[in-house]
Design goal:
single chain, 3-stranded antiparallel beta sheet
Length: 214
């Protein structure tokens, strides 16, 4: 009789949650709901007869976000890299669209919407840039520690950050901050990310007068 070969079990990828991060997200969400209730309960009671109207509306959105977060956490994150370039290009299209056709609030166009459904393209830009930079850093490998590697990250970040900053300076700064942190973590030579910080201060030093003047 032929000897039975031992069955080799395939190692499944281990999945785990960063519980400290999960707790932080839950805490900030609950804290935000409490602040919404505190600031809007009186107006909600007068207008809708329900002091928790705005809080419950936001709580439903938060619940949907948590469900989506759990679903996404079960997916292989390498899959996102396939859409990195597409999402990055789409970021420019959305930001140009919001500048031309966005809904105007307080003198700024920051929202795109169809009917009652609205969203801020800047939130999509943040996610798209994170995925794009992650793919670039992985592909560059050790070259991320060179001047050319750092320059490529800067060139990829600054244009989209500048377009965002034209309508929303704080979001533009956050986008540059995201790139700075990713570059700082990726580089072994920690001096290179400070070049990005210098570029950020110079870039937004130019953008600030324009943003306040518009």
């Amino acid at each position: 009789m032929a000897e039975k070969r031992p069955v080799v079990k395939k190692n499944r990828p281990r999945r785990f949650y960063d519980y400290s991060l999960l707790f932080t997200v839950i805490f900030l969400s609950v804290f935000g709901l409490i602040m919404i209730y505190s600031s809007s309960s009186y107006a909600a009671q007068l207008k809708f007869g329900n002091a928790s109207f705005f809080m419950m509306k936001q709580a439903k959105i938060a619940l949907g976000g948590f469900i989506l977060m759990i679903i996404i956490s079960k997916m292989d994150y390498h899959w996102y890299g396939k859409f990195a370039v597409f999402a990055y290009v789409l970021s420019y299209i959305l930001m140009i669209a919001v500048s031309l056709f966005g809904k105007k609030f307080n003198g700024k166009r920051r929202w795109l919407g169809v009917g009652s459904l609205t969203f801020q393209p800047t939130e999509f830009v943040k996610i798209a840039l994170i995925v794009m930079l992650a793919v670039m850093i992985v592909q560059m490998g050790k070259n991320i520690n060179t001047k050319n590697g750092v320059a490529l990250i800067i060139v990829t970040t600054i244009p989209i950050a500048g377009i965002v900053a034209a309508n929303n300076l704080s979001s533009g700064i956050i986008i540059v901050g995201i790139a700075f942190v990713m570059l700082f973590v990726a580089c072994k030579k920690k001096k290179w990310p400070f070049c990005l910080r210098i570029c950020r201060s110079r870039a937004f030093g130019v953008c600030r007068p324009h943003c306040h003047g518009s």
